[in-house]
Amino acid sequence: MLRKIDLRSDTVTKPTAGMLDAMMNAKVGDDVFGEDETVDALENKLSELFGKEAGLFCPSGTMTNQIAIKCFTQPLDEVICDQTAHVYRYEGGGIAFHSAASVRLLHGERGILTPELIEPEINEPNIHYPNSSLVVLENTVNKGGGACYSLAQIEPIHTLCNIKELKLHLDGARIFNALAATGDKPENYGKYFDGISVCLSKGLGAPVGSVLLGSKEMIKRAVRVRKAFGGGMRQAGFLAAAGIYALDHHVGRLTVDHTHARALAAALGQVKYVASVMPVETNIVIFKIEGNFKAASIVQQFLERGILCTTTGPDTIRMVTHLDISPEMIDSAIENIIHLNPSAHK
Ligand SMILES: *Cc1c(COP(=O)(O)O)cnc(C)c1O
After folding, report:
1. Which residue from 9, 67, 90 has its CB within 8 A of the most atoms of ligand 1, so it is best to mutate?
2. Percentage above 90 pLDDT, the chain
């Protein structure tokens, strides 16, 4: 049987035996009553790590982002983010639906914003204009091929937001990948961001869950919003235990995923059917294929060889490395990349 090498996303990982064991042994209670000590432990662990006062465990990163946007805006406000942002593109239009806010889209280099890009887009107070109230950064940038901000790049954005009285939220779905790549310390993040979303179900390998971090006051409001969004969970400690296990066991190994991604990129850079490969900073490889091929057809031909990946446009393909990808799988994927001899399909 052909062994599948699933490079579609870092969300496809299955819990390890150790993680399942931690889940089975979790002490739980009704978290809507505030009685689940494992959920509390996860929220405390992450809020301490990132230097925020409080945390809130939620079912998904979409929910933590949408709750944060709801907490940091009023109807008729405007959210500033990059045009590639997950909060704008991949959250089902939730900003309009939940927060009745508009969105100002910027064009950063691979999704990375700068104070120079943001400042001219902040509206002056004027009844004609939506009220600019929130900037959202994504680290790493998913659609930017896993590009990351260093804290040094974030600091001046924080300063600008402070001066202009805008809130700053981090979509940190892959924040641990960014930390592994930059060497920055998580505790410094709390100083710059009003809200931080951390996903446990991406590179960290937990089956479910994200945590929203913020001030005590903000999280108090976020608990109400989560309830209204239908995200209050009962004996959620079984899931929170997977998150704690992931933080204890799966953070240090993220550099392995980054090494694997670089190896894939190096192979892709050598073959004729690939026009260019985005620079690889973390665990995402996005590449553009030559004009006489179609991305969908190349993805299909990889699939026939047991390699799963996805298109991100008519001529771009994405591969993502993660916990369930072994060095042998990378070797096998590289063999296939090098030997694939696609026929033109246009
Ligand atoms: C995956 C992801 C999220 C959250 O997604 P969920 O599937 O809702 O957990 C948020 N932001 C980015 C950049 C992501 O890649």
Report:
1. 90
2. 97
